[in-house]
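Predict fold of Glycine dehydrogenase (decarboxylating); 961 aa.
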Amino acid sequence: MSSSTYGLDAFGRRHIGTTTADQQRMLGDLGYDDLDALMAAAVPTSIRMGEVLASAMPEAATEREALAELRALAESNTVRTSMIGLGYSGTITPAVIQRNVLENPSWYTAYTPYQPEISQGRLEALINFQTMVEDLTGLDIANASMLDEGTAVVEGMLLARRASKSASNRFVVDADALPQTLALLESRAEAVGIELVVAPLDAHTDVAALGEHFGIFAQYPGASGRVWDPASVIAASKAQGALAVVAADLLALALITSPGELGADVAVGTTQRFGVPMGFGGPHAGYMAVRKGLERQLPGRLVGVSVDASGAPAYRLSLQAREQHIRREKATSNICTAQVLLAVMASMYAVYHGPRGIRHIATQVAGRANLLAGWLTDLGQSVVHDAYFDTLRVVVPGLAANVVARARDLGIHLWQADDATVQVAVDETTTVEQLHAVVRAFGGPDERDVDVPTALPNALPEAMRRTSSYLQHPVFNTHQSETQMMRYLKTLADRDYALDRGMIPLGSCTMKLNAATEMQAVTWPAFADQHPFAPEADVVGSLALVEQLESWLAEVTGYDTVSLQPNAGSQGELAGLLAIRGYHLANGEAERDVCLIPSSAHGTNAASAVLAGMRVVVVACDELGNVDLDDLRAKISQHEASIAALMITYPSTHGVYEHDVADITQAVHDAGGQVYVDGANLNALLGFARFGDFGGDVSHLNLHKTFCIPHGGGGPGVGPVAAKAHLAPYLPGHPMAQREDHAHGFVHGGGPVSAAPYGSASILPISWAYVRMMGAEGLRDATAAAVLAANYVAARLREHYPVLYTGEHGLVAHECILDLRPLTASTGVTVDDVAKRLVDYGFHAPTMSFPVAGTLMVEPTESEDLAELDRFVEAMVQIKAEADAVGRGEWPADDNPLRNAPHTAESVISGEWTHPYTREQAVYPVRSLVRTKYWAPVRRIDQAFGDRNLVCACPPVEAFA
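Predicted 3D structure, encoded as tokens:
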């Protein structure tokens, strides 16, 4: 393999954790001479590629070369001050948050907090986020973030459909909604049979004239900047059985009446302007809050408070966050992720500024908007709305394009609403000098007298001004010096376990390291400070980066075109299935609505199929974890005229290369269906086989898995969708995209699945840098190293724990499933006990009970070195010995190191030690831990208690006394 010839300045040598000598030792244990021999035995010959990819892939660059190319792309962009608005605002990221959260691997390399005992820091940050949203929206319960505002509105619509008792399928939408939100609603509603009624809403709207409807949606303030009172519309709509969804600007809610006080059932929106850069569209943390009674309908994740084994308060994800995987086609949403890193930033913005600071920022924004309106009115210009917060619409008949062009020459982007109307949005970064420049663009003088108001302007009507309090919890009123904030962030980070501490061997999650060089460009202003609707001429570099990454991803997957728009794997799944649906409809085959899904599939597969308007038919798996070909053929025969698609994960969800995959895809194609290959396990395939070559028509890829975007404690993610040419017209388009065409000249004409044209564009440089620095051979080497690591762990542990599924030659792919059910049967030690005991050994547990209950799925990735792999093996062997001691009766079944794990420092030093094992056995089961110990901050958490006693806001300080 080429890894043996890496030069000392090659990035691949830094990325792949095992050295050539390490690999030879590991291969010796497995009985193979080299990596080529191992991969030849593991990957079925029927799907193997020939030569290493070359056509679209450049030679691997060094870190310095890649950064120089990124600099050149950045310099092709032009950063102007954005006053476009439309849901994206300039904001100031406090330096203490940028340095200690966004640029801190303790925060950006952590995983989803499914193991709450070692996630208390980010869980606290998320409960701060929920509390912030609950306070500002005036509603009872908020979740731990949504993907963006547009998709949050869609989820609000779907929640209203589920919760409303109305028989209607109509949803009333405010005509003054953000244009990208309207486009998303139209796309998503059509697939599930919801009729949208777009109507101008105001306080005098005759709701009865709109007809029966299950829900109503209002933008507050409106996209045009209008501040209005929707209370009467909400009341009238609810009186006929509908639910009211309000998309609200969180900063505006510091000054105007909250949605909850107006009667809203659901509030949605974005927290982007709370310190998160625009980033050409994302990633940003959307939000959703609901009134009491709707909490079980919330999509995504909800953090709650429970108690640990000592009765102390402890945070954890609540039940519905876990059960989305279990519900499959009955899930309330296909979203199983969040935007944790961005939600943490937004919550810390509120912690740092506090209620007084947030109100001060909002007042400044409103004051500057009012100042600008006065100057424009003095010029004789007509400002459309008398009541506004930060956005003005100005009527300039026939001159809108000229005004926008003049502003651009002065370094400012305005928005041309139509030929006669210009829109201007003010934010916390707006200076008085920029206001002068805007006035000049409208034909006014260079400067005027300035008297920036410090009180609320008349543009905010007295009747709409907020009188209720918010952010009163001590956490929002304590950490407002930089010293306090730095220490608070450090305290929370120290409570967590991330890749900066050790391996996170999670099957199906591919927790490889996010290299610092890959991350570097994220905060460069040329990428971070771009509005997603900036003119094409100003984002040439970003569009070039997008096109290059699209072409590279198409090449390595064997597809023709790629859309980077989906900002989560779940959205990529949905986009792929919507493309299949659009293809069948275009061919006049509307009856094709059955989606075949193996029983082992990730839960989001089935949920995505339902949201794409399909019926789910489950296909059985055999005892080896493969798709049961006989059952597949039977299901195809039963539903042949209705087959729309098969969703299959490859390698399988069980971590095995299925030899019959080409037969499986051919059977579906013969029946007229399309094949969706879930790309979650691409890290076991890259460089050796391609989805598009063995029958895939469309796939989503997880850039936060195979292509190194950080997990961020549970988000951000990017889930691009790649497809063959015949599906290209149905991939996600966007009405406000700078260009229609994509790499290789394809046009994507489907409806959007994300609010921004290129989704979470500001983190695409991470994957661009990874691919650019690895090159085709480096990507292939990474795959081989990952497969070697998984097989090495499986081989070392096989005599202690059965490896549940293997392919030919007894090999696994990039992950292995350790069967703990025999151990549980013989000793009573459960998979939970082993997972929690691993914390005492300084590890994050592997994936628990997925895809098989009572098992651990281990994926080491290529990033881990041999010493760390051996450390994990040692821990698992020692834990097996401890379990056997319980089985022999040396320790009681209810009082042993596994059942009591994890052990906190307090638990071993406070009071009299009464356990039948020693303190040393509890916390130092291997001697290497003495100097490097990670201490869990809480003992084992009672999940069920928290679900019975749902508390999802900051508990009072006394709770921790």
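Residues 196 and 310 are 52 Å apart (CA to CA).
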